[in-house]
Specification:
The complex is a heterodimer of chains A (322) and B (345). With 322 residues, chain A is mainly alpha-helical. Chain A has helices at residues 10-17, 25-59, 72-91, 100-127, 131-154, 158-169, 177-193, 198-204, 208-213, 218-240, 246-257, 263-285, 296-321. Chain A starts with 9 loop residues before the first helix and ends with a helix. Chain B has two domains: 35-64 and 78-244, P-loop containing nucleotide triphosphate hydrolases (Rossmann fold, 3-Layer(aba) Sandwich); 266-337, Sulfite Reductase Hemoprotein, domain 1. The chains are: A mainly alpha (322), B alpha/beta (345).
Chain lengths: 322, 345
């Protein structure tokens, strides 16, 4: 929090956050209005994405799975596209000018879209069964909503499209302190609740047959895992935009730092590393010396891509050794 | 009850159902396993071994008949109830990222642990004993991906032991392994069944090992019945010949072993016996020549001489033509002299 475009001494930061105030009103404003909520949001969003990604990688037994495989962030994008692109035109004004109500509408639409897709996926997983079909459905829903968004963009005002693109770049700085606090109060406990899923996750990692033989009700476990991961992803996407790569890269880092397959440890690791990674990305996005903030997704990609690439290279090496 | 049936299969029909269509793989199966028995399930590919195994685990519904394990009926039990009756080791090679041997074994305690899967003192004792019994204590902190195939198979067997069920089912546990590892795995299973009183059923293609190690065999025929009995009784009934009928496999009633069936185009009498005779017979069989015992006044024959070192002498009309100490050379020379080409007609 001490670092940023404006330097604030660390001792002052402690002072201000602990409520003692500071002589420098500007510093106080910067901290309370922007940096504190950003930190809160970044840490809790990182946690949520890290855990959601880990859940998906174990469920699909695929190291390249992430929160986006279920198509939930695409659903959120679709919802936002409807609000920003269609509603704006239909009512004859651009949402960019409406201010706060616009923000809420965007968050609401995004949450709505994400939850709709989640409901659809859960329905499929109940009806069809089979982990692979859920995966394929998620990816297909992703493609479909992207193409709908493409059509919407084509017929929209330039200003609206610009707004949509900005939303799609993601940001941890859209929430005020109160709303950021609320966001953290929901996502952090939810991330920790997933610790209750660690036993089913441990068993599912052995494959469906072994899991079943060890007494696991696979359908129920799969439902709960998709539900938890989906809600976490939906929340983050709604309030921060689609954040890429964190959810895919964090679980690998979590597996790297402790050599265990026990998801109790792995979920905790993912929480810590997820929060730290998101915070780091946010910091890089607003390094001292830069006047404006970089889009957060460009930063997460630069941080996450090397991790994912190293995982693929490592896997290749293991395969050759076999 | 005493030696009450651990597993009882009654008039069972197994197969797949897709939609309203049923594909029955095998029907009218009847078999039992007693306490502490090691049973091997044999049958050619496609006979339904894996289907039968999956059905016994409760993974797959069956059409008709009854399976009961310790008097409890499979089909109406929940996953959790089955998990305390039957443990499995499957053929699927599973990659569990980051898992160590002892972690894998500890997951075997899942049917007994609480919602978070924490292991208590008693669980840890079971885990340690299982790892020790399988002889992988020195690898217990190694990653599953870093140990050999045989050790990994033992780790999965230890997982099944930790599950502490009266019945262990293994689907081809010796596939992918080399011969010493196969023998080791079967010996381990043999120890488990006789020492801990668990019933072990494994499907396998290792006929020789099954004949020597199993208390009882289940022979699953294509479309045919399931024939059960001790290896020796089944040998007496010549039950094996039918298992591999018309597949170029011949059952040797003298040795109780299988051998490849060759087509023969010539016969060659051999004077002598012992190991040299067996080897000579094999070498000639590959070339389409059937060796016979000595007859009166044959035109060609081979005599096995043993004076310190084995020698083979080829005779034609009472005259010795060639003398060789290598099986390869005597067979080659004989073929030349008799003007035979390999497998010529």
């Amino acid at each position: 929090m001490a670092l940023g475009s404006v330097n604030i001494p660390f001792s002052e930061v402690i002072h201000i956050v602990s409520g003692k105030g500071s002589e420098n009103i500007i510093w106080q404003n910067i901290l309370i209005r922007t940096r504190l909520p950003q930190t809160l949001v970044a840490v809790s969003a990182g946690m949520a994405l890290g855990v959601a990604g880990l859940l998906m990688q174990t469920l699909f037994r695929n190291p390249l799975a992430g929160p986006s495989v279920l198509g939930i962030s695409s659903g959120a994008s679709l919802g936002v596209a409807f609000v920003l692109l269609v509603a704006g035109q239909a009512f004859g004004f651009s949402f960019a000018r409406v201010g706060m109500w616009g923000d809420l509408a965007v968050a609401g639409a995004s949450l709505g879209g994400a939850l709709a897709v989640l409901a659809l996926i859960l329905f499929i997983s109940r009806k069809v069964g089979g982990t692979l079909s859920v995966l394929i459905m998620g990816v297909m829903i992703g493609y479909l909503s992207n193409s709908v968004v493409g059509i919407l963009k084509f017929y929209s005002l330039e200003e609206d499209v610009h707004n949509y693109v900005i939303w799609g770049l993601g940001s941890f700085s859209r929430l005020s302190l109160e709303r950021g606090g609320l966001f953290a109060a929901v996502t952090v406990p939810l991330s920790l609740v997933s610790l209750l899923l660690s036993k089913p996750l441990n068993l599912l990692a052995l494959g469906d047959h072994y899991a079943r033989n060890l007494g696991l009700n696979i359908r129920q476990a799969r439902f709960l895992i998709i539900f938890t991961s989906g809600i976490l992803t939906a929340l983050v996407t709604a309030f921060c935009g689609p954040i890429v790569f964190i959810g895919m890269a964090v679980p690998h880092l979590a597996k790297m730092i402790s050599r265990t397959s026990n998801h109790f440890t792995l979920i905790l690791n993912s929480c810590i590393i997820g929060g730290a990674t998101a915070l780091l990305c946010n910091l890089i996005a607003r390094l001292p010396g830069l006047d404006s903030e970089l889009p957060i997704n460009s930063v997460t990609a630069f941080v996450g891509a090397p991790v994912v690439i190293s995982v693929i290279l490592k896997r290749r090496k293991e395969k050759i050794m076999e | 009850m005493g030696s009450a049936d651990f597993i009882n299969i009654n008039n069972l029909s197994i197969g797949y159902a897709s939609g309203s269509k049923q594909k029955i793989v095998a029907a009218n199966l009847n078999a039992q396993i007693n306490k502490g028995e090691l049973v091997c399930l044999l049958g050619s590919n496609g006979a339904g071994k894996s289907t039968l195994m999956r059905t016994l685990c409760g993974f797959q519904p069956f059409f008709d008949g009854q399976i009961s394990i310790l008097g409890k009926t499979i089909g109406i039990l929940t996953e959790r109830e089955i998990s305390r009756l039957v443990s499995v080791v499957l053929t699927d090679r599973i990659v569990v990222p980051n898992a160590t041997v002892s972690e894998l074994v500890s997951y075997g305690r899942s049917p007994y642990t609480g919602i978070l899967g924490r292991t208590n003192k008693k669980d840890l004792q079971f885990i340690e004993r299982a790892i020790e019994q399988c002889g992988i204590a020195h690898k217990k902190d190694a990653l599953l991906s870093s140990i050999s195939d045989g050790e990994r198979q033992k780790a999965f067997i230890a997982k099944a032991l930790a599950q502490d069920t009266p019945v262990i089912l293994l689907d081809e546990p010796t596939a992918f392994l080399d011969l010493p590892a196969r023998v080791e795995i079967i010996q381990l299973l043999r120890r488990i069944s006789s020492e801990s009183g668990k019933s072990v059923l494994l499907s396998t293609h290792d006929l020789d090992l099954a004949l020597q190690m199993a208390d009882r065999l289940w022979l699953l025929h294509n479309n045919g019945p399931l024939i059960t009995g001790s290896p020796e009784d089944l040998l007496l009934q010549n039950a094996f010949q039918r298992l591999f009928q018309n597949k170029g496999i011949e059952f040797d009633t003298k040795t109780g072993l299988f051998r490849v069936e060759y087509e023969h185009f010539h016969e060659l009498p051999i004077k002598g016996h012992g190991f040299e005779y067996v080897l000579l017979r094999r070498a000639f069989a590959r070339r389409g020549i059937k060796t016979t015992g000595m007859r009166e006044n044959p035109e060609w024959w081979i005599e096995i001489g043993k004076n310190g070192q084995s020698t083979f002498h080829l005779y034609k009309n009472e005259k010795q033509l060639i003398s060789e100490s290598s099986v390869e050379m005597i067979v080659k020379q004989t073929m030349n002299c008799m003007d035979l080409k390999i497998n010529n007609k």
